[in-house]
Design goal:
Elements (H helix, E strand, L loop, with lengths): L9 E3 L3 H8 L4 H8 L3 H9 L6 H10 L4 H4 L2 E2 L2 E2 L5 E3 L11
Antiparallel strand pairs: 1-4, 2-3
Helix pairs in contact: 2-3
Length: 98
């Protein structure tokens, strides 16, 4: 019996916050200066390394002229993934036993 090897591709999905910042042509340093956050803190927020307080989310929405819900979407289970690893759906190769 031959085992099929499944490839799982992990990729980072950019957060809406990061996409908005890049669309405006701003650096993390630009946004950090406008909000009073450190560049490191902004980086952690963009990559999902921390969950910002509501007042911090509001500061970011104002600085990026964006709707709060667009920058920090939620789903029925709570905050949506924010730059975390996502895995592609994998299906077994044809002819393999499931």
């Amino acid at each position: 019996m031959t085992l099929d090897v499944l490839n799982i591709t992990a990729r980072r999905t950019p957060s809406p916050l990061r996409l908005r910042r890049l669309t405006l042509g701003l650096t993390q340093a630009d946004v950090a200066a406008a909000t009073g956050l450190s560049r490191e803190q902004l980086s952690r927020i963009e990559t999902g390394g921390c969950s910002p307080h509501r007042s911090t989310r509001r500061l970011l929405a104002v600085a990026l002229a964006a709707d709060l819900d667009d920058l920090f979407p939620t789903n029925s289970e709570g905050p949506a993934t924010n730059g975390t690893l996502a895995k592609d759906a994998v299906t077994p190769a044809h002819g393999s036993a499931a």
